[in-house]
Amino acid sequence: MSLYEPAIATEVLRPGDEGYEDAARVFFATGRPAVVVRPRGADEVAVALAHAARRGLPVAVRSGGHSALGHGINDGGMVIDLQRLDAVEVLDRDERLVRVGGGATWGRVAAELAPYGWGLTAGDTNDVGVGGLTLGGGMGWMVRRHGLAIDNLVGARVVLADGRLVRASATDNPDLFWALRGGGGNFGVVVDLDFVAQPAPVVHFGTVTYRLDDAVQLVRGWRDAMRGAPDELSSTLALMPRIPDVPPTATVLLCYAGGDIPAVEVDAVVEPLFELGTVVRAEIARRGYAEILEDAQQLPPGLRMAARNVLVPELGDEVVGAIAELHATMPPKAIALRSLGGAFGRVPPEDTAFAHRDAEAMVLCGAVLPEAATETDVERAFEPWQAVAAHGTGTYLNFQGSATSADLAAAYPPATYARLVEVKRRFDPANVFALNHNIAP
């Protein structure tokens, strides 16, 4: 089917069409859009936006469909699904300049760059979309070595609400380029992004699992070990949900991106992590960067995941104690602490719309609830979270499971938010792109 434009026959799915039911589902939500379109280029994106404007259809833009709030779907509107815009093209081999379609996944990017011995620092899972994750910042396994995905972004092409295709870079529409780096999908449909890839022929990746005897002691030890670690080492400490009659455990997932060095040198770097507590299992191996990305795991039917996160400038003893207390509450919660600093922290906060560069760590909390749980049930489950959140200075919107005005206020300092509003007024004054962590013009 088409949108009935004479020159363009965009792939279109409507209720009743084969494939529609799958197209109406994203990782965390199911909707009932009036139409799902899958453009193959900027011109077809423009046609889709014009069609939505004529019919008065709200627009959702989907990259990989992993928004925690289901922003890649809607009811009764148009979904612009970018999955056909998934090309990965090397523009300049000497400069390691790579153009990535807005609908590509991180697994595809990693596989395409592997023959060159390159990698891009974002995406923990294969099927997460490049466009969505990048626009929110983009944390990955080399965040301390090479910063966020946006720190390696040098340009993007964007279809605006009026159908114009514009380029954003340090020299072309620099305000838009600034806003794209952390401001989310508020400004247009990003059809492709230009990155400078990093040499990453191999990394040393693995896990260390501990018996969780004392959560406070373990978190403090991990914090101190990462404070002394080189930038090449990134890690996440995961406190697994407490399950009755099952001994509690915690796991450090780590990636050393220091090149293909002898194993004995890697051992010296990660040794402090083996001293955090009683190790029950460990596996660290030399692997290609493309091999460390995993497939996202769906929850069993009847359950839903709710999540909150906070960026903390310092993992002081008070916040560590609050994390330990939170982990002991019901319903069972998984808590992940992602180490930051390094290259992530050396970017001036005003350089990108992601401004919280002083964060030592991100604390992420997830709770599994019945699918029928109401928002009141979710808020009740996260009441103990407030004691942790009180120590933060911001949130990482890509992992945020709520979208209140308070969440936006936490995500952007006042000066950053005011600047984003000005860019929004210039490039999307009618707020066509509103299904996101929305910055109203």
TrEMBL record:
Its cofactor is FAD. Residues 29-200 form the FAD-binding PCMH-type domain. Keywords: FAD, Flavoprotein, Oxidoreductase. The keyword Cytoplasm does not apply. It comes from the Bacteria. The keyword Translocase does not apply. Belongs to the oxygen-dependent FAD-linked oxidoreductase family. This is FAD-binding oxidoreductase. It comes from Nocardioides panacisoli.
